[in-house]
Amino acid sequence: MPKRSDLKHILVIGSGPIVIGQACEFDYSGTQACRVLRSEGIRVSLVNSNPATIMTDPEFADATYVEPITPEFVELVIAKERPDAVLPTLGGQTALNTAVALHEAGVLEKYGVELIGADIDAIRRGEDRQLFKDIVAKAGVRIGVEDPAGLVPRSRVCHSMDEVRETVAELGLPVVIRPSFTMGGLGSGMAHTDADLERIAGAGLAASPVHEVLIEESVLGWKEYELELMRDRHDNVVVVCSIENVDPMGVHTGDSVTVAPAMTLTDREYQRLRDLGIAVLREVGVDTGGCNIQFAVNPADGRIVVIEMNPRVSRSSALASKATGFPIAKIAAKLAIGYTLDEIPNDITLKTPAAFEPTLDYVVVKIPRFAFEKFPGADPELTTTMKSVGEAMSLGRNFTEALNKAMRSMETKASGFWTVPDPSGATRENTLAALRVPHDGRLYTVERALRLGASIAEVTAASGGIDPWFLDQIAGLVELRAEIVAAPVLDAELLHRAKRAGLSDRQLAALRPELAAEDGVRTLRHRLGIRPVYKTVDTCAAEFEATTPYHYSSYDAETEVVGSARPKVLILGSGPNRIGQGIEFDYSCVHAVMALRSAPSGGSAAGGSGFETVMVNCNPETVSTDYDTADRLYFEPLTFEDVIEVWHAEDSSGRAAGGPGVVGVIVQLGGQTPLGLAQRLKDAGVPVVGTSPESIHLAEERGAFGSLLARAGLRAPAHGTATSYEEAKEIADEIGYPVLVRPSYVLGGRGMEIIYDDVTLRDYIGRATEISPDHPVLVDRFLDDAIEIDVDALCDADGEVYLGGVMEHIEEAGIHSGDSSCALPPITLAGSHVAQVRRYTEAIARGIGVRGLLNVQYALKDDALYVLEANPRASRTVPFVSKATAVPLAKAAARIALGATIAELRAEGMLPATGDGGTLPPDAPIAVKEAVLPFKRFRTPAGKGVDSLLGPEMKSTGEVMGIDTSFGHAFAKSQSAAYGSLPTQGKIFVSVANRDKRGMIFPVKRLADLGFEIVATAGTAEVLRRHGIACELAPKHYEAGSDDDAVSLILGGRVALVINTPQGSGASARSDGYEIRSAAVTADIPCITTVPGAAAAVMGIEARIRGDMQVRPLQALHATLRTPQ
Amino acid sequence: MARRAGAILVLEDGRTFHGEAYGSVGETFGEAVFNTGMTGYQETLTDPSYHRQVVVQTAPHIGNTGVNAEDDESRRIWVAGYVVRDPARVSSNWRATGGLEDRLATEGVVGISGVDTRALTRHLRERGAMRVGISSIDDDPRALLARVRQSPQMLGADLSAEVTTTAPYVVAAEGEHRFTVAALDLGIKRNVPRRLAARGVTTHVLPAHSTIEDLLATGADAVFFSPGPGDPATADGPVKLARDVLRRQVPLFGICFGSQILGRALGFGTYKLGYGHRGINQPVLDRVTGKVEVTSHNHGFAVQLPGVQPGAVVPDQVIDTEFGGVQVSHLCLNDNVVEGLRARDVPAFTVQYHPEAAAGPHDADYLFDRFAELIEGRTHSEGRTNA
């Protein structure tokens, strides 16, 4: 069946901001979809509020709407674009839910828009728990299963707590609670006690948009599997990948260590899953496209139950695509426009069709990355609610190789087994006990238990069911460890065996202290000629020749790297997503690839223009690890060892082919991860291009940077560095409290705090365990009530500086730039301020010797500009600035790193001929960036919400952009995109600190004038009333017998907006209002914690009340911006 | 991860791989072929079609689920040798009754582990299936190479007699008996009679040398030609038998080797594929429905149609034969290999791949229904040819 000819214009819905459970895998899938549809000659409109994505680059769609993904805004887009069809299956649950809402509101019908890739009934059948149960039973009958009812856990759908209690009386505890229509398992959990039940089911009913939860029989400890399937409109079905969870049932699959393909199933059992999966897919009626089905298998007797299905592309399908080389999203997009699987060629072999099932001759391991350290008080137990913020994947020729590689891809303090000491006092018994609660890094606990003498059976039992096969693999490593420790010398045979098992040089160094650390092991290894080879991901286990250089390392006999004479550039990616280092860096890396593939490469021997781009990364969610992105992809950990081996393989094969080999390695676009490798790579003779490692050090080393600023006559807050409490106190006494303290070399404000007194300072230093002369604590004077300014700029070898954008934070200084909202162009800065920012930025860029991107943070206090910090690398805001100003900064940075000048880039048209981001025209649109925070995901062990108060340590997982002609409109859009819309009516609860009362009068007065009812705590109410603002009183704290206290009002959904700024300072600020803020998080009500935030909200609310919201594609906005004035 | 004794693998073109002894210690020879299935090693090992072949598993971990009492496809392990990368040290499965390596050792199967199986597979892909030797008793590759070059070739090998049952046996229908099928055992897999039994078929499995009289003496409503090892060009006896069956208009179904026999009976040739199809992920197009099925394959030979070069697209047209019109009903989408034949004027059809799966997907299970329907059509309207 060929392509449908009636589809000429398709609207693709993206997934919005990166949140836990919905990350950049949807940028990967959406980008693929846009590429495919356009290559088919179809006009593509796109709506996605996330500026950090590649898919919202204007060249990926014909009309790119960076607008909120809400029915309201998507309808505006549909009305304006009038597409033939909407494709919602590549934008995660957000896109799917929006499509359902548009259908229910009659919008699709009104505009004659067809839903493709899925139909509404199939979505319902897949996601409505009761319907799904019936579907599974029917599917079981279809394939002749003996007990079709046994294919699902016994369960019941409940709509009230009374129903929940009745059901549990029948099923008995423990039970699993799953709210309907939430993503990433939000709100679900396991109840072992009645108290658990009340708490989780209560929250679940609230979290479900249809107030529905499923209570089901526990399959805790069963083996967990997933299948990724695809179906075309001719009913051809293929299973792309099987995935087995190392963590048995009970831990969300997103939080589990997973393996592909399934390792512990016989063919008979695997085929049962396959038959059942296909039957369910057909019964649900997934029209075309990808789908994911999860199963639990009882390890005692093989009973299978179907857990759930997602009738769309998912996180697992991104993983499966990267794991197999079968691009699910790309194929799904083709299927949606009418092709069948047999008509689509296999991308990798080109000769065989996509209608087949990939077979793997390697093992893939995925490990989740958590960020519990960012949320003090959050319960770190892993449950059925997903809590991880990212993941790394690795490939190896066996399980342990892949496992060890994945573990060292995590970028945590531990870099694989034995790289950190055991917890003190670890015994076999207490280690086994620790296994009982699923936790981050449980594999370390497993290894320790085995090493301390526990048997495989004991570990299986203690861990609640980790399969003995996996445990034996780890036991094999424990035995190998003993051999390595005991061997008189580390000879070639043993070293080779260790490398085949996946052990890193660093791990070996930990076991053989005489080898002078990792470098010593590497030297020995190279001397013995032990280096990895690179194998190819080819979908077919080498049955057919692969045309795509998608490689992974292994210690095996034969390498498959084909030499190329073209000049090569290695781009180091950013590794697993984590808070502070996410999709923004992937965006910059992908841009570097795009820019360099077509850039003039300076008279290469091969004669061709363009560099051969080589991507190194280990994050399966990203666009950068799409084998279509760079010329060559190495799916490898970003450790020094793994990177230098890739460099060696590419450089030597390039030279052997008569070319120049690797002419540059770009480290400044992937965030702190590759930046941290810069000096070592350079020292090893690797050509690190762009800003030199020495310059990077100059910006990061406080003393050197301080003298640079002093020489240039630039102001900075008074500061010092300390390696002890005494030193820190001395500095604080000198510069005065409050002070901002942080460890050196961090990203995302890790460990950063504002401190107001000696006691807290002593406490902080006590907690900063890794403090040393090499890693001192930085102590800065904290500027209260300053305006924070963020700048992204380019600097070339001539010292020419291009100001990319000047962003003004909406919240005052003290909140991490990644968490605060900001506006571009700056909304309150005077021209003279911008001129001063320019002068400062130029001086810093030249002083450091930046060759590429530079991010500087300033504070403006009492009309004086202070330099807070400078980072000579791509920042999180690069994609935002690029989209707001129509200038591809990361592309320009990559070009500059390889020798281009700003003047040349202006002449080429990559940069504007004249002017820059500091000279935007007065009528330029205003872009507002808003951070998205994950507080809803976390609970304290007691089940309470965690505090949503913002501070200098970054906590957001993603961001959105609102762009419009006025600040109010842009801010309102940013709020709609991030949290749900600002209210236009209802009650507003206000409770502000004394110092904020003055500033709050105007915004609250305006809200009252707009018709909102104001509820306030006593102190706040008193001030407001004095200014003629009528307000009700509500006690801050719960009082027995009353339900009109702040928390009850919020939890009862009786207020539409909360404005709460913390009273006092330091630790007391944190505790004040904690209950109010966490109640707002629980109830999903917007909560504003700063005065400027409240002012911005007022402008946004006004814009919404006026009801004149409009949508405009980036292409139109950019055309205006790039037209010479 | 402890060390095992050394072993070597030498291909007939001299390429040598080093590894460790696996299974039985000793020396073995055969045709090196690779299998890309990620599951189903027990079925593969016990599939008689692998007789005289040294199987290279592309999936790196083998033996994870041990061996069990239910998944054997015949009475013994048939592979001549076994090449794996990472053998399991423990078996993990609720059905497991023992470990794979113990089983290999017990049955005297010489294997080698720790080999770069991907490099070996790429070599076979580029150079074609060839003879190989594995030794864990002689570490001199040159000496082994000389012995490899003296070992028998697969081309021209007549192996049916070595794998067939010595005495006839019967597999009863499940539930109500509907039909009787006489199955010629050229290396049959247990799942074939099982899939027939599920459709009310009682199967009489007969030795390879059986005559048409032997087949009909069972009271057969239809005849089945089984899969099996060897070069179909040598199978003159079964080909003659198939012609007898066709002449009598007795419904005929065949799988794999059986399909090649039908091809020869119809007057077509057969040829050896470069490196064969051995895996459980092969896409086959059913030309009748236009649908694609993912199927289990194990064949090193294929049917060659008159005037069609191997690898060329097979025209969708009726070919005239001595037994009337014949169509190519199934094609492998990877390489256009003929995967199924359907006679229009006599009641016969065959497939080159394995609808009985074991190991592999069940997508082609419907072919047993087609067989049952074919038989039913014949028994209910005697003498009418199948359309």
TrEMBL record, chain A:
* Region listing for Allosteric domain, in residue ranges: 980-1125
Q: What is its EC number?
A: 6.3.4.16, 6.3.5.5
Swiss-Prot/TrEMBL catalytic activity: hydrogencarbonate + L-glutamine + 2 ATP + H2O = carbamoyl phosphate + L-glutamate + 2 ADP + phosphate + 2 H(+); hydrogencarbonate + NH4(+) + 2 ATP = carbamoyl phosphate + 2 ADP + phosphate + 2 H(+)
Ligase found in the keyword field: yes
What are the GO cellular component annotations?
A: cytoplasm
- How the cofactor binds, per note? Binds 4 Mg(2+) or Mn(2+) ions per subunit.
Segments of this protein annotated with the region Oligomerization domain = 412-561
Residue positions annotated to bind Mn(2+) 3 are 857, 869
Please provide the record's keywords in A-Z order: Amino-acid biosynthesis, Arginine biosynthesis, ATP-binding, Ligase, Magnesium, Manganese, Metal-binding, Nucleotide-binding, Pyrimidine biosynthesis, Repeat
Biological process terms in GO annotation? 'de novo' UMP biosynthetic process; glutamine metabolic process; L-arginine biosynthetic process
SMART domains in the record: CPSase_L_D3, MGS
Binding-site positions, Mg(2+) 1: 294, 308
So where does ATP 2 get bound?
742, 781, 783, 788, 814-817, 857, 869
> Binding positions for ATP 1?
129, 178, 184-185, 217, 219, 224, 250-252, 294, 308
Enumerate the Pfam families for this protein. CPSase_L_D1 (PF25596), CPSase_L_D2 (PF02786), CPSase_L_D3 (PF02787), MGS (PF02142)
Q: Which GO terms describe its molecular function?
A: ATP binding; carbamoyl-phosphate synthase (ammonia) activity; carbamoyl-phosphate synthase (glutamine-hydrolyzing) activity; metal ion binding
| Residue stretches making up the ATP-grasp domain | 142-337, 706-898
Binding annotation for Mn(2+) 4: 869, 871
Binding-site residues for Mg(2+) 2, renumbered to this chain: 308, 310
Per its UniProt entry, which superkingdom is the organism in? Bacteria
Instruction: List residues binding Mn(2+) 1.
Output: 294, 308
Q: What family does the Swiss-Prot or TrEMBL record give for this protein?
A: Belongs to the CarB family.
Subunit-structure text: Composed of two chains; the small (or glutamine) chain promotes the hydrolysis of glutamine to ammonia, which is used by the large (or ammonia) chain to synthesize carbamoyl phosphate. Tetramer of heterodimers (alpha,beta)4.
Q: What is this protein called?
A: Carbamoyl phosphate synthase large chain
Q: Which species does the entry assign this protein to?
A: Micromonospora zingiberis
Protein encoded by which gene? carB
TrEMBL record, chain B:
Give the record's pathway. Pyrimidine metabolism; UMP biosynthesis via de novo pathway; (S)-dihydroorotate from bicarbonate: step 1/3; Amino-acid biosynthesis; L-arginine biosynthesis; carbamoyl phosphate from bicarbonate: step 1/1
Query: Keyword set for this entry?
Result: Amino-acid biosynthesis, Arginine biosynthesis, ATP-binding, Glutamine amidotransferase, Ligase, Nucleotide-binding, Pyrimidine biosynthesis
User: Region CPSase: start and end of each range?
Assistant: 1-179
- What InterPro entries does the annotation carry? Anth_synth/Amidotransfase, CarbamoylP_synth_ssu, CarbamoylP_synth_ssu_N, CarbP_synth_ssu_N_sf, Class_I_gatase-like, CPSase_GATase1, GATASE
HAMAP family named among the record's database cross-references: CPSase_S_chain (MF_01209)
The species this protein belongs to is Micromonospora zingiberis
Binding site residues for L-glutamine = 49, 228, 230, 257, 260, 298, 300-301
* CDD domains reported for this sequence: GATase1_CPSase
Locate the transmembrane regions by residue number: none
Listed under subunit, the entry gives:
Composed of two chains; the small (or glutamine) chain promotes the hydrolysis of glutamine to ammonia, which is used by the large (or ammonia) chain to synthesize carbamoyl phosphate. Tetramer of heterodimers (alpha,beta)4.
- Please give the function described in this protein's UniProt entry: Small subunit of the glutamine-dependent carbamoyl phosphate synthetase (CPSase). CPSase catalyzes the formation of carbamoyl phosphate from the ammonia moiety of glutamine, carbonate, and phosphate donated by ATP, constituting the first step of 2 biosynthetic pathways, one leading to arginine and/or urea and the other to pyrimidine nucleotides. The small subunit (glutamine amidotransferase) binds and cleaves glutamine to supply the large subunit with the substrate ammonia.
Q: Which residues form the Carbamoyl-phosphate synthase small subunit N-terminal domain?
A: 5-135
> Which EC main class describes this enzyme?
ligase
Superkingdom as given in the UniProt entry: Bacteria
Tell me the active site. Answer: 256, 354, 356
Q: What is its EC number?
A: 6.3.5.5
Tell me the protein's name.
Answer: Carbamoyl phosphate synthase small chain
A Pfam family hit = GATase
What molecular functions are annotated in GO for this chain? ATP binding; carbamoyl-phosphate synthase (glutamine-hydrolyzing) activity; glutaminase activity
Organism lineage reads as: Bacteria, Bacillati, Actinomycetota, Actinomycetes, Micromonosporales
UniProt-listed NCBIfam families: CPSaseIIsmall, PRK12838.1
